[in-house]
Amino acid sequence: MAPKVLISDSLSEAAVQIFKDRGIDVDFQPDLGKDKDKLAAIIGGYDGLAIRSATKVTEKILENATNLKVIARAGIGTDNIDKDAASKKGVIVMNTPFGNMITTAEHAIAMMFAVARQIPEASASTHAGKWEKSKFMGVELTGKTLGVIGAGNIGGIVCDRARGLKMKVIAYDPFLSEEKAQKMGVEKVELDDLLARADFITLHVPYTDQTANILSREALAKTKKGVRIINCARGGLVDEEALADALKSGHVAGAGFDVFKIEPATENPLFGLPNVVVTPHLGAATTEAQENVALQVAEQMSDYLLTGAVSNALNMPSVTAEEAKVMGPWITLAGHLGAFIGQMTDEPIKAINILYDGQVSQMNLSALNCAVVAGIMKRANPDVNMVSAPVVAREKGIQISTTNQDKSGVFDGYVKVTVVTAKRERSIAGTVFSDGKPRFIQIKGINIDAEIGAHMLYTTNEDVPGIIGALGQTMGTNGVNIANFTLGRSAAKGEAIALLYIDGPVPETALKQLQDTGLFTQVKELEFDVA
């Protein structure tokens, strides 16, 4: 029986034809995504679901998805998909990370021009039969300083276009190396420096805990008087009420927003303010981009449903069906090793070195490399996947190297990941036991044997008495249950580490209590994607 795909949002006829040409049964219902109850009622009859942004794939819908194998989003953002529920259900989630980069970057540039020259207001005035030439005095972009927050895929294109407009470009991106910045022709700066110097500020970062409200009221107060702010990335990056106040006071001269904290945005503090240009999330809305992502989705889903090949998956590596049976646990381990280092590293990464020892050195190292890099990069970009992660790393100027070696120790195979920054090197190693469970076996050269859990606590300290007691008492006082407790040290009275596998998040009060003891040089809460 042919695989059956449901398309619940608007998708091009060319994409629908791809499914048909490849022998897939297609049910094209472009308005179904707005009716979540009907979608939940019929989803059980389909192997694949192709969507855009209108369809919300909730846990309830997935509960009824008894045959669903893959969800593919024609676009980058997958906030409308419950990825945790999909993973637990065994459903692959795909996106199309590169189909609309140019379109979104061009929209940001267009918004800069619109705000600089007050084009929408001038157009409305002229349409109304007025001739208010002196009212709409604009500014040039040439010679102005553009501050780019986030110099990744889209932000990098904006930097390139802005340099073509003869703007001076400064960029804030913790993961942008100095070498890469030089190649891009931009000046790498800290956020406060960008705020103080930029005539225009444009945001190109995902919405994460680190970027939420990155332009807060306090940050806006640090900006240069007369600055103009553009956001075509994600809602919630800017304090909209604070920006509205800054616009009213004249400190901010203008703003162009394509995204909002609450969407659809039928009301917003920015609406109705002079020299504020707003559009209804049109960043990816060009004929070319919509066609590109639609065709990409059709090809990816067809490949998976017909051959088992996986590409641009957010919750599964890009490997063949045959490789997945053997490599699954090792890919999971690789992701955990990367996630550990990614969460521990705040400064820009210059290089990632991966050592494969023993049996794992004979596997599909390309997929394992992608899993490691994706684990590292996810902290900065939650939408990164094992296909796009190496591209993102390469664009940031990160050098990735691998070393293979025959079995060298007690383990049949292990993986060691070392990250190099301007300040330090950090390493972690792990293996897969015979039960298929990944384990951490070494951190910072200190041997351990640690089971990996969704929530963990990592500490470093001098090897002195009282550490176990302090950790146990603090966790107990704060109601945190310890599932597993692993210790290691470099030598007696030397550097020591502890890794706790705990049943839930650690309260901020507990972290502060541990730091206040003076016993620990580092206290870090960690999270891992453990099914």
Structure description:
GO terms for molecular function: NAD binding; phosphoglycerate dehydrogenase activity. Belongs to the D-isomer specific 2-hydroxyacid dehydrogenase family. Its EC number is 1.1.1.95. Pathway: Amino-acid biosynthesis; L-serine biosynthesis; L-serine from 3-phospho-D-glycerate: step 1/3. It catalyses: (2R)-3-phosphoglycerate + NAD(+) = 3-phosphooxypyruvate + NADH + H(+). This protein has about 525 residues and is of the alpha/beta class. It folds into four domains: about 1-95 and about 285-305, NAD(P)-binding Rossmann-like Domain (Rossmann fold, 3-Layer(aba) Sandwich), CATH 3.40.50; about 100-280, NAD(P)-binding Rossmann-like Domain (Rossmann fold); about 315-445, 2-Layer Sandwich (60s Ribosomal Protein L30, Chain: A); about 445-530, ACT domain (Alpha-Beta Plaits). The chain is built from 17 helices and 22 strands. The protein has helices at about 15-20, 35-40, 60-65, 85-90, 100-115, 120-125, 155-165, 180-185, 190-195, 215-220, 240-250, 285-305, 320-345, 365-375, 390-395, 465-475, 510-515, and strands at about 5, 25-30, 50, 70-75, 90-95, 145-150, 170, 185-190, 200-205, 225-230, 250-255, 275-280, 350-360, 400-405, 415-420, 425-430, 440-445, 445-450, 455-460, 480-490, 495-500, 520-525. The chain has a seven-stranded parallel β-sheet, with helices on both faces. It has a six-stranded mixed β-sheet with strand order 14-13-15-16-17-18, with helices on one face. Strands 2-1-3-4-5 form a five-stranded parallel β-sheet. The chain is globular and about 85 Å long. The model has no long low-confidence stretch (mean pLDDT about 95).
